[in-house]
Amino acid sequence: MDSAFVEYPYIFGTLFISASIAITIYFVRYITFATFEYEGAHVLITGGSSGIGFEMAKEYVKMKSHVTIVGRNLSKLASACSALKNFRISPEQKISFVALDVTSSEETVVKSLGDVVEAVGPISILVNSAGISFANQLEDLKFADIDSLFRTNVIGSILPTRFVIPAMKRCRKGKVIFIASQAAQVCIHGYTAYCASKWALRGLAEALQMEVKPYNISISIAYPPDTLTPGISFCFLSQF
Fold it and tell me: Which positions ≥6 away from 203 have C-beta within 8 Å?
């Protein structure tokens, strides 16, 4: 027997495995979740009054979703909400905001988001975009800044996620998106605490996907590089 299969078994085996993996990825990404209907879906975005959160809000509005943005500054929220309405495709789209500090107690977050659900409807997509950054070496950072950073970047993503997951499980449908940073892949000198908080989001997202996959819930994490956003401080450039 001198067939190509007999002569090159490893090559054919590798091709078969590669094809199997490619097909699996296709079905998971493009069959399981491609049927998600964005029109009419309720999208809630923390940190949605500026930066990455606001830009994502604009894109969801253009896809005919109902969008609720969350932030701490009432005037910025009102201004951003007014701007988002200019991108509506349909007058039936609900564009709203809620003033909420995602570092508040879980009871406060649950109450505020519960009011949003009652007014707009179940949350189909959650985008955890709220985040802050402090640039300095670890020993030079104030502990209060480190605590605030972790409460905003990590706990501020966990609390809204804990709120939406039970309802998404019941519906067997939903998306949760975490906005991390390229600093969760390649650490940066002078951003010790910030990198640690973003790596925490990476671990959270990867483990959570395992938990909710049987319920057809998609967990995504973004690793944006240098971005023009008010959430990043570049003061380390002048220090190191």
Answer: none
